[in-house]
VanZ like family protein
Amino acid sequence: MRVLGKYTWWGPALVFAAHQMLQYGFGIRLALADAYLDPLLFLPIMLGLFLQERWWFFGRRRMSGLETVVAGLALALAAEELLPLWQPAFVYDQRDYLFYALGLGWFWWAINPGKELAETKG
């Protein structure tokens, strides 16, 4: 099954969209969600899109553990360390790294197919 056909990818994407609509569209503030939901959902969404792109263009159906950790770390560092330097709306928070790690775990176990599934056509 392709990434964009998985409810395990669409769930985080829809929760992210709903939260953005509540926060910025309707002005509803939920303190914990505003602080930590974006880091939690960022890696499953972005790595899922990256995996889907690799599937379309290169036929790669699965990311290895090393690829997943390196890509997740690079994205988390860029979002947490670099973006606050350019945009004051982004705020550095060390606790975000816990939520990036949880999101990375969600990607690994729920979105990235296991080896046996990656070897089948679909």
The chain has a mean pLDDT of 93. The CA atoms of residues 50 and 63 lie 9 Å apart. The helical segments are 7-25, 31-58, 65-86, 96-111, 115-118. Residues 3-110 form one domain.
